[in-house]
Amino acid sequence: MKFRLAASAEMLYLDLPFVERVARIHERGFEVEIWDWTTKDLAAIAATGAVISSMTGYVRGDLTTADGIGELLATAKQSLAAAEVIDAPRLNLHGTGLDPNGLPVTPREHATGKDWLRAADTLRRVAELGEAAGRVFTLENLNTAVDHPGTPFATAADTLALVEAVDSPGLRLNLDLYHAQIGEGNLIELVRRALPWIGEIQVADVPGRCEPGTGEIRYQAIADELRTLGYDGVVGLEGWASSDSDAALDAYRATFME
């Protein structure tokens, strides 16, 4: 068993039109991740022949407020229909909707016990949608110190607790190691702990959020541990290129596959 590599078309080849970014990443032999599907030509993306690894699984909403729950469930259904066009197997969620700057639309520094119960119930309903459609929603951890201040249920510990509580094949963890390093660290132990619940792993180095090898994380050790654990899912580069995108993808592949 071995894992597969994907890369985000939102953060690489930024000088190209979006569909050309998708095609270029595909030509380099990687699966492709996209974010907000509402701004994309999905038919054109499908025509590239790229394997789409994941996409954003909602447009608006949150996990805890009455209006937010309704919006999240409604737009999750719309996202499942969009996923059919590009055959995206995983649809990504966050603790609340994020604005174009990555800031929470419904900020909340501290979740109450009732918030936790509402969030788990909302995610159960989302998971049921995923199961019925034969697709998986993934709940991504974020960092609040640098990129996403005020986001509820942001840490890997929070997202893992919610995924475990729902305990459904329609909901898994998108374990983002860039965010986890900033917020929690101890990445190898985190991967070991979360392994049964992981739907995808995302990577970028710290600081800077560029490709592995540009910062403090020993991604080669993490790659070795993933092989030892028998992880056979997707590892996705959700990071910027420190110089040019081809070089970033070369370095990424070398770290995880050599």
Any descriptors?
single chain, alpha/beta, TIM Barrel, 8 strands, globular
In short:
The protein has 258 residues and is an alpha/beta fold.
Overview of this protein structure:
It is a single chain. The chain has one domain (4-257): Divalent-metal-dependent TIM barrel enzymes (TIM Barrel), CATH 3.20.20. 42% of the residues lie in helices and 15% in strands. It starts with a strand and ends with a helix. The longest helix has 21 residues, at 66-86. By secondary structure, it is of the alpha/beta class.
Strand percentage lies at: 5-15%
Reading the helices and strands in chain order gives EHEHEHEHEHEHHEHEH
CATH class: Alpha Beta
Low-confidence stretches: none
CATH architecture: Alpha-Beta Barrel
Q: State mean pLDDT (0 to 100 scale).
A: 96
Strand order of the largest sheet: 1-2-3-4-5-6-7-8
* Major sheet characteristics: 8 strands, parallel, barrel
Distance between the termini: 15 Å
Helix content: 40-55%
What is the number of E strands? 8
CATH homologous superfamily name? Answer: Divalent-metal-dependent TIM barrel enzymes
What is the alpha-carbon Rg in Å? 17 Å
Which structural category do the helix and sheet elements fall into? alpha/beta
Q: Please give the count of helices.
A: 9
Quaternary arrangement of the chains shown?
single chain
* CATH topology grouping: TIM Barrel
The best one-word shape is globular
